[in-house]
Amino acid sequence: MSIPRPLEEEVYDMSGARLALTLCVTKAREGSEADLDALERMFRQLGFESTMKKDPTAQQFQEELDKFQQAMDARTDLISCGFVVLMAHGLEGYLKGEDEQMVKLDDLFEVLNNKNCQALRAKPKVFIVQACRGEQRDPGEIVGGDEIRMIVEESPQTIPTYTDALHVYSTVEGYISYRHDKNGSCFIQTLVEVFTERKGPILELLTEVTRRMAEAELIQEGKARKVNPEIDSTLRKRLYLQ
Length: 242
What we know:
Layout: E1 17-24, H1 32-45, E2 49-54, H2 58-74, E3 79-87, E4 89-91, E5 94-96, E6 102-104, H3 105-110, E7 125-130, E8 165-169, E9 179-180, E10 184-185, H4 186-197, H5 202-215, E11 218-220, E12 223-225, E13 230-233
């Protein structure tokens, strides 16, 4: 008996152009260059057209996202995926530009949603955020339902504004994100390692990233710390980057 293949509509079409944008503040963020090198290697292996900008101001974070969106909408070829990496110091919901000013993450996410970016309408939009979300530190803990289904009538002519997006944060709300001053950040290095070594749907790969980070023990100020990423997904289909 043959195993049925997944239905075509359940998998994102990745046959078109893949575009990536990385905005990274390196000022007072030792180890950032190691992350940039790892990301460049990953995007090259995964077939992305990659653009990187170092040390953007808060305003330039917004301007570069706007330029990224406008360039995609101006293209005549098929675009399959937009992949954005944002790396900076931060607080919950905000990133700090090179000029010490803050930019709101939601404003950056809005640029590529289904309303504002026609080229990525119903296409996957991946955001990777390497930044602190607060000052809390996690020492770790010793390890010692019914499904609710709602059926809605299909409406193929319309799509919700905020679907097909994947936001991956390097840490959970309120907590610090760790970065080694030479080897780069635990999150970016682990993500690149998994994305380049393994194949599978991106959410499965991110589960592996979470598992590896959860098993790792980081030492800060002489104390053991734990950290794990947080994944926020409105993807409607399986997304394969390979």
